[in-house]
Amino acid sequence: MLRPFDSLPRRGRGPLWRDPAARALVFQVLLLIGLASVIGLLVHNTLQNLDARGINTGFDFLDNRAGFSISQTLISYDGNSTYGRTFVIGLLNTLLVSALGIVAATIIGFTVGIARLSPNYLLAKLATVYVELFRNIPLLLQILFWYIAVIRSMPSPRQSLSLGDMVFLNGRGLFVPAPEPQTGFWFSVAALLAGSVAAMLMARYNRQRQSRTGRRLPMGWIIPALVLGLPVMVFLVSGSPLQWDVPALKGFNFSGGLTVLPELLALWIALSIYTAAFIAEIVRSGIQSVPKGQTEAARALSLPPRLTMNQVIIPQAMRVIIPQMTSQYLNLIKNSSLATAIGYPDLVAVFAGTTLNQVGQSVEIMAMTMAVYLVLSLLVSLLMNIYNARTALRER
């Protein structure tokens, strides 16, 4: 016996061009073919034009002798070094100023962002002036200001500004003591790593213990004891195996110690202050996005303001802060390429500047330079997205 719906005619699949999924697949394939054709045409025309003008192509030039000096090198470099080594040196200098800028900008930005919400009228207004001043002046002008008007205007080495007869600042840079590890110092380094791992495990255990029993361990002194106290104790027990090479004035300049070039100092200050102004607004907006009921509940539980900020407000605000802060980190890394304006030997100045002028293979050099910034940006985005995923809210 037939049921009522069995007698109805079945609707066929219909022509393939009426299927939305099939049409979408065809359009995507056509788009990929068109994009690959355009890229292939550009590469073919570029190679033909370079060959017609007698310009060599390829990356064999990386093995040739560079023959020019670089003011700051984190690895060994001399007149016989290759262009490939200049690429590595420029990359390391870019990573150095980017890492220093990210750390300093984060600390300054969080401090100013929280200060903007302070009940202290003067402190809040000073933080507002800072944000409105530094984020509305072009970064290049700030770099030139710190380099020309501030650091290069410092006194000569003989009239250097000193701090405790160990740190000296003048127009030629910042001179600080250089550490010289002795035998047995690496035991202190191992203790620092072990203490850091133990602190992370203790923090994780403390969170589990709090969710299970509602009680917390006094982590305010446990973490410093593990991260700082343990390495210091090992350092003292092993006989303090660390000496300092203090810079000393000899002739017309300082010798010994560690020298921070004025170009690096100016670029670091400008990048940190400029980016921190944007991070401060991100922090302010993130804190204000937390419902006020959270703060009122913390006050009802008699939590002190510092604990309320650290344990209640900031953890919730980070879910709003992290995605926006990722963009500022990427901007700082890319803005470091402005170092070429003051002669800091970063990747753009050393490789895309001096090396390009000597070799003339612009396509390969610019492609390598752009690839570096692309990889750095993708790596920072990946790390920040992993951290953001760990701090995101999860449905239960």
From TrEMBL:
One family name in Pfam for this protein: BPD_transp_1
GO molecular function: transmembrane transporter activity
Topology within the bilayer: Multi-pass membrane protein
UniProt-listed InterPro entries: AA_ABC_transptr_permease_3TM, ArtM/GltK/GlnP/TcyL/YhdX-like, MetI-like, MetI-like_sf
Family per similarity comment: Belongs to the binding-protein-dependent transport system permease family. HisMQ subfamily.
Record PANTHER family: AMINO-ACID ABC TRANSPORTER PERMEASE PROTEIN YHDX-RELATED, MEMBRANE COMPONENT OF AMINO ACID ABC TRANSPORTER
PROSITE patterns cross-referenced by the UniProt entry: ABC_TM1
An annotated GO BP: amino acid transport
Protein's UniProt name: Amino acid ABC transporter permease
Keywords: Amino-acid transport, Cell membrane, Membrane, Transmembrane, Transmembrane helix, Transport
Domain ABC transmembrane type-1 intervals: 91-384
Record's subcellular location: Cell inner membrane; Cell membrane
CDD domains named in the record: TM_PBP2
GO CC field: ATP-binding cassette (ABC) transporter complex
Principal subcellular localization: membrane
Residues that span the membrane, as ranges: 21-43, 87-112, 133-151, 185-205, 217-244, 264-283, 338-359, 365-387
